[in-house]
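Lab manual, section 2.4: Encoding a predicted structure.

Procedure: take the sequence of the chain (83 residues), apply the prediction step described in section 2.3, and record the output as structure tokens. A sample record is shown.
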Amino acid sequence: MIDWDVTAFTQYRHIHVVTGGVGSWLLMDILNKRDIPLDIALNVPDVESAISVCRHSDLLMCYPYSAVKHIVAEALSLLNPYR
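Recorded output:
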């Protein structure tokens, strides 16, 4: 099992989601201020594309939960349709 900390997080290659021309959010801002780089392997225009790539690769996508909670809810409904 991996202990998730900043060091572990930054050792992975990442998918960068740029929606509506905005590609920066709080976590990215904090990492940038601390000069902690992310290995951005791919830029995608929307969350759905990023999720699709994640399903078929070892890349990570980190995105604010408020922006993806509807996708998470749909996935849970698919996994457990009697919820």
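Check your result against the sample. The first helix runs from residue 6 to 10.
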